[in-house]
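Notes, p. 3: input format for complexes.
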Amino acid sequence: MKVREIACKTALCQSGLADYALNCYVGCAHGCRYCYARYMRRFTGHTEPWGEFVDVRVNVVEILLRQLPRTRVGSVMVSSVCDGWQPLEEKYRLTRECVRLLVTGGYDVSVLTKNALVVRDLDVLGGSKRVELGMTVTTLDEGLRRVIEPAASPTLKRFEALKAASEKGVRVWLFVGPLLPFLSDTSENIRSLLKEASRLPLERIYFDKLNVRSGVWPSLEGLLREHHPAFLGRYRSVLFDPTERESYLEDLRRRIEKAVNAHHLAGITVLF
Ligand code: SF4
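Output follows (272 residues plus iron/sulfur cluster):
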């Protein structure tokens, strides 16, 4: 892992997901094989594989302090192209300090992570009803999880983090996806994830399919060649053949709805 400390000029950036996005790191050591943020390599001149470099924006707290007085208060997505609680955050505490400033400044803060390290910061997140914590999960199969999200927290730890957050009064929600065809999109996995979800006071749950934009396909193709070569042909079919894709997605939607109905869950959005 190549780690560099860099200086940034801006903390809050315009975003399509909220009024602003905050990213304290460039790159993400979680190294998810399906990560859409890998396009950041192009913008930052990194040649290392995604997941093998992180630039730490060491002055981001200072820059945010300067930026806040001249910024209209609004909603902030933390983080959009990295994970704010990836392992280096344990040492640098940048996301923690930035979120603390945003909460104090009256911003609506929406956090999305795959790391249970966020529990360290529940004292900050629990300080305002304007803060919500989302956790992304994809599979309860730890063997598969280690392959597709190697440095993120085990999935059960993520559910535990949501539980701890809700007990501190933080509003919590769940993002299930992307579901990988024939690996994590099985009805059994979807039902198991919803069983865990049903124990939590989640405000909402989103489901998403796999998208292969931003160089995701070469990454997944490598994974399949190494671990599941028998699925290569089926992946090409459901990802790149429009007729096969429509039929695959219709079946996936139907299976998600069936599992949701079995658990009597409300507030579910299927994003495809
Ligand atoms: S945690 Fe998010 S940003 Fe980090 S590698 Fe995984 S998908 Fe990408």
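The chain has a mean pLDDT of 96.
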